[in-house]
Design a protein that fits this description.
The chain has a 5-stranded mixed sheet with strand order 1-26-25-24-23, covered by helices on one side. It has a 4-stranded antiparallel sheet with strand order 2-29-28-27. The chain is mainly beta.
Length: 428
């Protein structure tokens, strides 16, 4: 267990103890438990497993043959994995090596898709991933008929670093972290929104194809979310962290219908802001731990939580992690948020005129002794479109931070595939 995990568990305990009486009776009702239909083989974050650690998925629909649709997933130093709808591996893509002996190797953190991006004289669907190790984006063309696997690297070799000025800054690892893509319906231009590790920044990068068929990007603007918050009692609160670290953003998703970005600041809550990063961000919901003071202990490397002042939310437990969008044809739908601290998912109304109100939640639990659920979920992706005979009503893919492996001596992660019809029924 990491120092951060110990801090979160201790803080969660303090929060629950302090707020147990204040929680309304209806809020304590058990959330619906949904079971997965399939799971990927376990990934192991050790040398034998290629330092692979499941993080964030994306779902690509094969319009010509929905049964052959794919799931593309970021697995950190393991690069990318591609799975079919039976959760079987199709392709493994290694990240770029370290540029020097003292530098970090490629480490793919989040992944998302862009449909119909212009590449030279043609258009193609691409997967875009944040390479935390090199502070760059990597872009892969998707072609299901390609020999050797559907993904082909089309990143322009001259593509710039996202946040760092040089390799020395890259080695400090305040680099590209969370990622979501967005195509502006008004202009047809495509973008990646990228957060910065251990900082509050989110950058808007425009993706552009070159004449040779590669893809590069340019930074349009950067937004800094708050790192300190004024509480109702007049105190100023900053989430406890190792000195020099600020409350970072990871999980993000853009609603293409209205161009709104939803961003999860892990120890704070869920923000809404225009995807072009103009306007004023609005904090839609707070984590339960919001406002809880903490003191960092340098000897133990842990934060010691203080008394809870009672300013936190009721539905999310830090970290706020994977965000995804469940759309409906009539414009309704939900923003789904992974509440990593209590292994649940919260659903907020997608419609702005409804104020993105909370509309329920669920858990993903074990289907059998061999097919477990999702715990400590880092990332999620939903697609409400028919995906052939296996998922005619759509699919939800969630990361499992505590995969039950065949070898209990090795910690493992993976991804669970859930019939989206179960999700819609639970929320309806």
């Amino acid at each position: 267990m990491t120092d951060r995990a110990r801090w979160l568990l201790a803080t969660a305990g303090a929060v629950l103890a302090a707020t147990a009486v204040a929680v309304p009776a209806h809020a304590s009702a058990p959330l619906p438990a949904l079971t997965p239909k399939a799971e990927t083989p376990p990934l192991h974050d050790d040398e034998a497993g290629g330092n692979s650690d499941a993080d964030d998925p994306a779902i690509w629909r094969n319009d010509a043959d929905p049964d052959r649709s794919l799931v593309v997933a970021a697995v950190k130093e393991g690069g990318l994995r591609v799975y079919d709808l039976d959760a079987r591996p199709v392709q493994s893509v290694a990240p770029p090596p370290a540029p020097g002996p003292d530098d970090a190797p490629g480490r793919f953190n989040n992944v998302d898709l862009v449909h119909g991006l212009r590449l030279g004289a043609s258009r193609a669907d691409v997967a875009v991933t944040s390479d935390r190790g090199h502070d760059r984006l990597r872009i892969y063309r998707i072609d299901p008929a390609r020999p050797g696997g559907p993904l082909a690297d089309v990143t322009d070799p001259a593509a710039p670093r996202v946040f760092s000025a040089d390799q020395d800054e890259v080695n400090e690892q305040a680099t590209a972290y969370g990622l979501a893509t967005w195509t502006d319906r008004a202009t047809g231009r495509s973008y990646a929104l990228v957060s910065r590790r251990n900082r509050t920044a989110v950058a808007l990068l425009e993706l552009t194809g070159t004449a040779t068929g590669s893809v590069t990007y340019r930074k349009v603007r950067t937004l800094e979310l708050p790192s300190a918050f004024r509480l109702p009692n007049g105190a100023t609160w900053t989430p406890c962290a190792e000195p020099g670290e600020l409350p970072q953003v990871e999980g993000m998703v853009v609603d293409p219908a209205n161009g709104m970005l939803y961003a999860g600041q892990e120890d704070v809550g869920v923000w809404r802001v225009r995807a072009d990063l103009t306007g004023t961000p609005k904090l839609l919901d707070r984590v339960r731990e919001f406002g809880v003071p903490g003191e960092y202990d340098e000897e133990t490397g842990e934060c010691v939580p203080g008394p809870d002042p009672g300013y936190g939310g009721k539905r999310l437990s830090a970290d706020v992690e994977g965000l995804t969008l469940l759309t409906e044809p009539d414009g309704d739908g939900h923003v789904l948020v992974s509440s990593q601290g209590d292994d649940t998912f919260a659903a907020y109304d997608r419609e702005l005129d409804e104020g993105n109100e909370y509309e329920g939640g669920f858990r993903v639990t074990a289907a059998s002794t061999t097919l477990d659920g999702s715990e400590e979920c880092d990332g999620a992706a939903a697609l409400n479109k028919p995906l052939g005979r296996r998922y005619p009503h759509g699919l939800l893919v969630v990361q499992d931070g505590r995969e039950t492996p065949a070898d209990p001596a090795r910690e493992a992660t993976g991804f669970k595939f859930v019939d989206l019809a179960k999700v819609r029924k639970a929320l309806d």
